[in-house]
Amino acid sequence: MECHERVGEPGVDLGGQGPGDDPEHRHADGPGDDGDDEGRPERDPDRAAAIANGSVNELNSLVAELSTSAAHRERVFLEGRLAVAKRDLDEASNQLAQFSSKNNTLDMQTEGKAMLDAAGTLAGQLIAAEAELAPVRRQNARENLDERRL
Questions:
Q1: What pLDDT score does 20 carry?
Q2: Distances from the Cα of 60 to the Cα of 63, 74, 88, 145, angstroms
Q3: Residue 3 CB contacts under 8 Å (≥ 6 apart), including other chains
Q4: Which of 7, 1, 37, 34 lies closest to 21, judged by CA?
Q5: Range among 4-8, 31-35, 76-80, 144-148 with highest mean pLDDT value
Q6: Tens-place pLDDT, residues 14-72
Q7: Among 39, 7, 9, 42, which Cα is nearest to 22's?
Q8: Quick one: pLDDT band at residue 116, thresholds 50, 70, 90?
Q9: Domain ranges of the chain
């Protein structure tokens, strides 16, 4: 064991330094002491553990508070940017609508919807035509087999 761990142990020679002689190990009730024992080693392991745990808890709460406030600031910033982007998009959309009506251009949304509707109609007609054609193909295939046999 080192000497500072054995301070105050009966029968241990500390080379002329007793528990009261070391300025690092003064007690709060000593003369001229202001009662501030910060920076001095703690002798009671339970109290030292409580102080350490308290410090850890305090640091954890500070980190949580800082993280929360940083996330809040980021959210406020992003919401502001989103509002600006939405306003810019609405303004651009209005300008495009005005230009389209003034210059008789096509409305892309309406044209796109009409094209999709037409494509769906054509696909339906193709399926119906193939369904009508299938029995004819089967009939022709049988007739061709009969001709080949002859």
A1: 47
A2: 5, 21, 42, 87
A3: 14, 15
A4: 7
A5: 76-80
A6: 444 444 444 444 444 444 445 555 566 667 889 988 999 999 999 988 888 877 888 88
A7: 7
A8: very high
A9: 42-105, 107-150
Task: Produce one character per residue of 78-112: b if its CB has 16 or more CB atoms within 10 Å, e if not.
Answer: eeeeeeeeeeeeeeeeeeeeeeeeeeeeeeeeeee
Of 3, 12, 42, 45, nearest to 25 by C-alpha is 42
Per the CB < 8 A criterion, the answer to whether 7 and 25 are in contact is yes
Helices (H) and strands (E) in the chain — how many of each?
Answer: 2, 0
Q: What DSSP designation does 23 have?
A: G
Amino acid at 50: A
What is the distance between the alpha carbons of residues 24 and 51, in angstroms, rounded to a whole number?
Answer: 18
